[in-house]
Amino acid sequence: MPETPEPPAAPALRGAALGTADISFFVVSAAAPLTVMAGVAPVAILLGGIGAPAGYLLAGLTLAVFAVGFTTMSRHVTSGGAFYAYIARGLGKRVGIGAALLALVGYNGMEIGVYGLLGTTTADTVHALAGADVPWLPVSLAGLLLVWYGGFRSIDFGAKLLGVLLVAETGILVLLAAGVLLKGGAHGLSLGSFAPGAVLVPGTAAVLAFAFAAFTGFESTVIYRREARDPDRTVPRATYIAVAFLGLFYAFVVWTVIQAYGAEEVVGAATQDPGGLFFTAITTYVGPWAADLMHLFIVTSVIASLLAFHNAINRYVLSLAEEGVLPAALGRVHPRHRSPYLAGAAQTLLGAVVVLGFALAGADPYQQLLLWVNTPGMIGLMALMLLAALAVPVYFRRTVHSEGRWRTVVAPVTAAVLLAVALCLVISRVGLFTMASTTVNTVLVALVPAVFLAGTALAGRLRTRRPDVYARFAEDPVQDTAQDPAEDPEGAQPCPQPTPS
């Protein structure tokens, strides 16, 4: 009898599609540099004075230390789950499943809230350029469709699009900086922003809280491991490039804006018109046409951020569907574009429900949709970074490896301490991010541990009712030697070194 042909393999993500630059475009775009600078940096200057640029450098340095252990872990844990996989392999599956749910909520919060920002920035841009008023809701819904299409297409299409948008938004900031430097600023150029007397002021703590928030999304490099070329090299390089670029670029741009107004005048200008600080500077030093471009590029900056987060969310959902935690249908990959298209459709539908819900409630798209939805997402992602930093030394203590102590102990423990401080700074000053009442702030912060605890409860349910799913959660395709501390309460011992033949 003729042999029965084997059924064709199910479509998978497009392997070896992304290089270092491509992944860097995704993660830097998620941070939305132009939006962060023009929209948030004036508040940092208002709170921290001329020492604000140093806050971005300190935040970047902290996250660079975190990246040491984080990227080292990426060479040993190749599961597509990134944050939750690392946490599960270091701190146990129950904690890992709690982290998985927190990652889903956190990344969705960081993306969906930004649709409110898209509506307001587009309305502001149209009003500034044409004098017309447009409602925010149709703009946000159109953005949902545009971002869905970008995620539906292949990952290399998204990388090329984000590359173009990122060059546009960073280019306009470079143009502003060049204009200030060529004209020597308001009173000549000064490095006083980095003097200890300017940095060691009470407002620096608030600046640090804003600065850490400005890096959100950089850690998503590891999510693209399955689509990266030579991931053991590409993913760490992209991570360090993203952190270094954001930290240095943010500090440089904020410093140049301070030079544009002068050290004595910049705080007053930020107080009087924070939203116009960058636009006035670029009009003065480059020209009104450049201010018009900045208005346009802020809109494209927001779109780029939305697309970057959308792609990251889709890959988290894909991984959790493959793990069996989410419905299997969400793990389907488009046969032509090789994208997690059903995960993308589900994420777009969720975004539409939230956006329409806020609109029907008469909520403000900026102060409520953006700030109230973004804030718990940001806090959740910072908490995940802290858990991941703690997981690294625990994992390597129980696993045979050839990595040095700096990568496996010193850097991750140092990062954990610094991230704990940063998380406390953000929570203690959460009102600066939300502009809401104490009651609202309490609810928004409490959502983070509530989601994590719900995830650990789900883990208990899976362990009892679906032990096969629980057993293979966050495991690599090839089983490694690390044990789950949840299965071994006495603590797993390091595996013996192989005997040379």
TrEMBL record:
<keyword id="KW-1133">Transmembrane helix</keyword>
<dbReference type="Pfam" id="PF00324">
    <property type="entry name" value="AA_permease"/>
</dbReference>
<dbReference type="GO" id="GO:0016020">
    <property type="term" value="C:membrane"/>
</dbReference>
<dbReference type="GO" id="GO:0055085">
    <property type="term" value="P:transmembrane transport"/>
</dbReference>
<keyword id="KW-0472">Membrane</keyword>
<keyword id="KW-0812">Transmembrane</keyword>
<protein>
    <submittedName>
        <fullName>Putative amino acid permease YhdG</fullName>
    </submittedName>
</protein>
<dbReference type="InterPro" id="IPR004841">
    <property type="entry name" value="AA-permease/SLC12A_dom"/>
</dbReference>
<dbReference type="InterPro" id="IPR050367">
    <property type="entry name" value="APC_superfamily"/>
</dbReference>
